[in-house]
Design goal:
Length: 309
């Protein structure tokens, strides 16, 4: 992995997390639509959008070639199916939480998520941390622990979000499939289920699409763009940088979500939460400096990672 690839990976990942951090604004606009229908719409319109992207970029040949390749590489096919199921659970949990007054808990989930990514990187991919990176990991863990304890109840939304997206990132890093083709295949896996569910809503007359106004219709269709774009950037970034670095970049999204919850949607932000916020950002600062020459000490050279199943 050369320096230019790492820099590109950081940019791709940072943009994806920036978009994800602002995404609650979009789902709030669809607050009068059931989370299940929003999820189904995300899947269907994401798949339609990705097909157009493949046609426009002349990658349909690669798409069909990858499908044929599954006959010889069953493990890769199963990995893509797993990725599709993981991200679907993550999407549903996030949409439901944002539109049911749990935005702070979604922020907590994505603060925990980098710790999950770092642990997976160390255990599965054999990535190692330097001395300063271990310190930053410890500070982040303390910050997350403070948030968890101060939350008062078991934060199941946060745990589900952290685990599903952490495992999704691991699977995406292990599967050697071109990013746009991979996302198309992921949405293809669950599109039949989404279409069946939307058909069920239509028959029962409980479907919001085409029944709540042109604004709602456009937002549901636009869910495909809101879904596909950050995932494409994430997929590109995940394949170019270590999973532990990817984990710390993920603090961008929950920070933006937390700020939205406080300053836009007027959710309460306590002194305890501020303390944990300081720990987490201190960890991020130390980790970032550890990747430069500003902190003394030998820089760790990442081991060669297994890229394909």
């Amino acid at each position: 992995m050369n320096k230019n690839e790492t820099q590109q990976g950081v940019i791709y990942a940072a943009v994806s997390y920036l978009l994800w951090g602002l995404l609650p604004i979009y789902w709030k606009l669809l607050g009068d639509v059931q989370a299940e229908e929003i999820l189904a719409s995300r899947v269907v319109w994401s798949f339609v959008l990705m097909l157009f992207i493949l046609i426009f970029t002349r990658k349909m040949g690669l798409f069909t070639e990858t499908l044929r390749g599954f006959a010889k590489n069953k493990k890769q096919m199963y990995a893509l199916i797993l990725a599709s199921l993981l991200i679907s659970v993550n999407w549903f949990t996030y949409i439901w939480a944002v539109n049911n007054g749990h935005m702070i808990e979604t922020s907590l989930g994505y603060y925990i998520n980098p710790l999950v990514s770092i642990l997976l990187g160390m255990i599965v991919l054999k990535e190692k941390l330097s001395f300063y990176q271990y310190i930053s990991f410890g500070l982040a863990a303390i910050g997350v622990l403070i948030i968890s304890i101060s939350h008062g109840t078991f934060p199941w939304v946060a745990i589900v979000l952290a685990l599903t997206f952490g495992l999704y990132g691991l699977v995406k890093k292990l599967v050697n499939v071109e990013s746009s083709v991979g996302l198309t295949l992921e949405t293809l896996v669950v599109t039949p289920l989404a279409v069946i569910y939307l058909g069920y809503l239509f028959i029962n007359g409980s479907m919001a699409f085409l029944h709540k106004g042109i604004g709602t219709d456009l937002l549901l269709i636009g869910a495909g763009v809101a879904t596909a774009v950050p995932l494409l950037y994430f997929a590109k970034g995940a394949q170019k940088i270590p999973l532990s670095l990817l984990g710390f970049l993920q603090y961008i999204a929950p920070t933006l979500t937390l700020l939205l919850g406080i300053f836009v949607y007027n959710e309460h932000f306590s002194k305890v939460q501020l303390l944990s916020f300081i720990f987490i950002w201190s960890a991020l600062t130390i980790y970032s400096l550890s990747k430069t020459k500003l902190l003394p000490g030998k820089q760790f050279k990442w081991r060669k990672e297994k890229r394909a199943i």
